[in-house]
Design goal:
Blueprint (H helix, E strand, L loop, with lengths): L4 E5 L20 H17 L4 E3 L7 H12 L5 E6 L1 E3 L12 E3 L3 H11 L6 E6 L12 H14 L2 E6 L4 H9 L2 E2 L2 E2 L1 E7 L8 H9 L3 E5 L17 H14 L3 H13 L3 E4 L4 H8 L8 H8 L5 H9 L5
Parallel strand pairs: 1-2, 1-12, 2-3, 3-6, 6-7, 7-10, 10-11, 11-12
Antiparallel strand pairs: 4-5, 8-9
Helix pairs in contact: 1-2, 7-8
Length: 317
């Protein structure tokens, strides 16, 4: 079996609205979300998951993870969080404005680090949230040097997360960022799935350099599940469903296994919001795709520009 591990992302566990085409009628109170988050964290740990990924912009996600960590006192956790986005929807369900505001400034880094550092000593990866060329973060010497200081003082790995059609260019530039002669970024959280495979070559290079690769949005925000809205994926859905039946698992397990067998990343993040979904995701570790079936899934890749235009049009729900 491959060494890829499944981790749990808290994007859908810490706030009442999230970008995902799958909807569910759930209690959206803070108390209910906290109870569910603790249930999910406990269940994930019981399944063997040890990497948990959050961010300040995930509503109460970072707060929930910190409290759970302090209560459970597990010593074998690897926690990841990010800085650069602020959650502003204030738990308003159906909030009409931007739910999170991006700011890659030194002041935002210092502000958010004061909270995030409470995840130490289990904090293993500290990431720039949604790194882009346009934000200027990769050229901001002041911020880069502060991240290097954090790295040296705490031992955490410094990473980036990135999205969009320019993911490959962003990763390439980040790989060349050095502070005091050493690579600053050693962890890369990237969207890669059966529909968005454009980063494959650069991610294989990153892994060859013994750096960490964390795959997010592995299920394309729910788009891997059959949906009549996406007429462009109807043939893809047939392929996914046939393979799911052949391997006696759900479509999500096929989609996750594709990532394991094609890329072998360090972690794949499950975005599950309940234990049933997480159990289904976890079955991806129970089988291996044949070379023929892996080839079929590689053919499901779409044009990156089209993929990201479609992604940006998805609504919060």
């Amino acid at each position: 079996m491959k060494i890829t591990k499944i981790g749990l992302g808290l994007a859908a566990l810490g706030r009442p609205d999230y970008i995902n085409i799958r909807t569910a009628n759930v209690n959206k109170s803070i108390a209910a979300f906290k109870e569910n988050a603790f249930t999910m964290l406990d269940h994930a740990y019981s399944l063997g998951l040890r990497y948990f990924d959050t961010a300040p912009s995930y509503g109460k996600g970072e707060e929930f993870l910190l409290e759970w960590k302090n209560q459970r006192k597990y010593k074998d956790l690897v926690l990841g969080t990010k800085w650069g986005y602020t959650y502003v929807a204030n738990w308003e369900v159906g909030y009409s404005g931007k739910h999170e505001i991006k700011e890659h400034s030194i002041s935002k880094l210092l502000e958010q680090w004061q909270v995030s550092k409470q995840l130490l000593p289990q904090l293993g990866i500290y990431q720039v949230h949604s790194t882009t060329l346009e934000s200027g973060i990769l050229d901001n010497t002041t911020v880069l040097e502060e991240l290097h200081t954090i790295k040296k003082e705490t031992g955490v790995a410094i990473g980036i997360s990135t999205s969009g059609a320019q993911q490959r260019s962003v990763i390439e530039k980040a790989l060349n960022v050095k502070v005091n002669g050493e690579d600053l970024f050693t962890s890369f959280q990237v969207t890669y799935n059966v529909f968005e495979q454009a980063t494959y070559p650069i991610l294989k290079q990153v892994l060859k350099e013994n750096k960490t690769v964390i795959v997010k949005e592995a299920l394309a925000n729910g788009r891997v599940f059959k949906n009549d809205t996406f007429t462009n994926y109807q043939d893809n859905y047939k392929t996914l469903e046939v393979l799911a039946n052949n391997y006696n698992v759900s479509v999500d397990a096929i989609a996750l296994r594709f990532i394991i067998d094609s890329l072998e990343p360090t972690y794949i993040l499950s975005g599950a919001s309940n234990t049933t979904q997480l159990d289904s995701n976890h079955k991806a570790l129970d089988f291996v795709l044949s070379k023929k079936d892996l080839g079929k899934l590689k053919e499901l890749k779409t044009n990156p520009s089209n993929y990201w235009e479609e992604r940006s049009a998805l609504e919060w729900n």
